[in-house]
Amino acid sequence: MKLGVVGGGQLGRMLAQAALPLGIETKFLDPSAQSCAAAAGQLICAAYDDAEGIQQLSEGVSAVTFEFENVPPLTVEKLSQSLPAYPPANALATARDRWVEKSMFRDLGIDTPAFEKIDDQETLDAAVERLGCPAVLKTRTLGYDGKGQKVLRSTQDAAGAFAFLGSVPLIMESFVEFEYEVSCIGVRSASGDCVFYPLIHNEHRQGILYRSQPILNSSLQSQAESVVKKVMDSLNYVGTLAFEFFVKDDQLIANEIAPRVHNSGHWTIEGSATSQFENHVRAVAGLPLGSTETRGDVAMYNIIGKLPVIEKILAIPGVHLHNYGKSERAGRKIAHLTVTSESAEQLNSRCSQVEALLVNDLGV
Amino acid sequence: MKLGVVGGGQLGRMLAQAALPLGIETKFLDPSAQSCAAAAGQLICAAYDDAEGIQQLSEGVSAVTFEFENVPPLTVEKLSQSLPAYPPANALATARDRWVEKSMFRDLGIDTPAFEKIDDQETLDAAVERLGCPAVLKTRTLGYDGKGQKVLRSTQDAAGAFAFLGSVPLIMESFVEFEYEVSCIGVRSASGDCVFYPLIHNEHRQGILYRSQPILNSSLQSQAESVVKKVMDSLNYVGTLAFEFFVKDDQLIANEIAPRVHNSGHWTIEGSATSQFENHVRAVAGLPLGSTETRGDVAMYNIIGKLPVIEKILAIPGVHLHNYGKSERAGRKIAHLTVTSESAEQLNSRCSQVEALLVNDLGV
To answer: How large is the ipTM?
Structure first.
């Protein structure tokens, strides 16, 4: 069996690594000849909307998926005419547009920060009047890792902000004084079965995910699973979905979804009975979903910009390196580390050793 | 970094899968265009002793290794003239010849069954006289999985046995009434550091490994580690080595070594902090060896000849499929399953479910 993947970054690379032991080979469509997924499968080098590239991707594969949300929904729709193409194009279209996404949350009765649709400086000024500050202004599409955002600390910051963000459609969201951020990763099969990983506590540095760790919180866990299930069912979703929440007063406030495997779930490769990557492949390929039980105590660190001294990192017991084979560049995610252990105490000790060696270069 | 591997079977495929997260890509040399490792790296299709193929394999790689012992030692020696080539050619040459191998055991003072070198029917008859029966007659080279062997139950069985096994150099070994079989997998770095996995209990069916499970036995473990270290040091070994023993009266009797990653260690992918494959790559690439601590309770099953119903297998929690992408054929190893769990009880329950689904076709 073969699987087609639109996008050839590290998520595609790790999808291919999960697919191969299932006997499934992978083919990628990506405009960059340097796509790091090419080391794990066949690369078709063409734009995401290139008709010939899309045709080539679909040849000889049994199903297709995508690895990030900047893929045009039309590509997925086109592929879905001849093949199972999951997650569905409508889920991709929803997740790509922060205003459509937040509107879906509101329609489903899911707690989310107050938000307004911004089409020009005039609607921005009116929204600032209504919602007040602090608030966050974000491009509706194509933003990630804190890019395409501006914090409005006071009403003065709104002046010229529409032009500053490129005069493109925006969303303004009330700033939430949250205590911490979590994500919930769920997987849904074509027959509607769902599995969920434990909630993940995420720490960001300068807008980029730095550290993720699964946590046990039964009240938040059941809140999260119910919200994620509601969204997956309403989108008739198939595959892995990540849902990011703010936590305040033991309540979840919906931030955003990613219709794909997610950076905060990379620890599942070593830390779960079945990884988010394998479960995504299983869902897309029509195989039964696997157990999400956690294996020991585990945490994940992103390596950003610059690799640490690998010999020192690998000498720490329980450290699993995932080097994506990308060149070093300030602010770029080039690898991650998962730390496994038998106890919380052992995990803390190993994490301290790891943190002392990281030289994350955020370039900001 | 790139690694060259002589041989492109499932061991090569799993070496490549372990190397990629370390940022190491893999290139294979194998005469078969159907090599299943090709899905995980670049394949150079040529005979193991083909000068041009060897040259192509060595281009752009930082080190080379091999994935099975039927590779000609001369190929490794040739590669070692320009590159780190591990394990060393002398280890390969020793392991390829059962008589040389057993002689090394004897020279190092390692317990082994009584054995004799057989060059013709005459030396065979004389050996039968000296050692008595039952005994096992094996080709000195190129045998595996019980192939190229003949059991001599009584002296009459010796008649014509030399011709029966192809009139090639043989070894005759006294039959050991062992209680069970274990293997010890060790890894040695170029600087002489050694790590060992826990002893593995191996169950064979018709000469082919069926089930492997790590066991705790501190007395046998220390015996085994001391023997394996002695052999690795004496061969100036670099990489993963598997040592098979018979167990009788709480003593180890050396059976044979494999100078490579080994089928009985496949459970280390999910069951150890660092797999035998990753530690082999680390050793060959000059990286520090990783922890061999075991993660939970774990067992491995070979899938031979015919795949079970994959949907049913994948529905059992904690079951990890490794489908090698090879076509089904009686007696052929085409996949393996690792079962992970949190307790011995849970492992037993999961293994029972697995065993009920296996349809191993030994074709005999």
So the answer is: 0.94
